[in-house]
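ok trying this again, last paste got cut off
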Amino acid sequence: MSIVKINALTVPVEQREVLEKRFASRAGTVEGSDGFEWFELLRPVEGTDQYLVYTRWRSEEDFQAWMEGPMKAAHQGGGDSSGGDRPKPAASGSSVWSFEVVQQAAPKQA
């Protein structure tokens, strides 16, 4: 079965809009990756200042290939030779949680 990676990002209230806009502008960058199955950006409602970035992958190997290829390039400027400064991170902290999917369910068809 699939694996799930959740990146828990600590985001100060004043940076929430910045973070959401950055994720909106990245739309499509992971979707074409081999083994990619799902993405969600989860905004906290109450009790925490952590956003959760949920991705599901066919395998750990597929996730690692994305991390070492497209994701690494995107976070290093993607080969942009303009020499411009990278924007300040919107998150003040981050930790990645890893899970294996052992059970799953979908809505019943009518």
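PB: full thing came through this time. Residues 78-83 have pLDDT under 50 and may be disordered.
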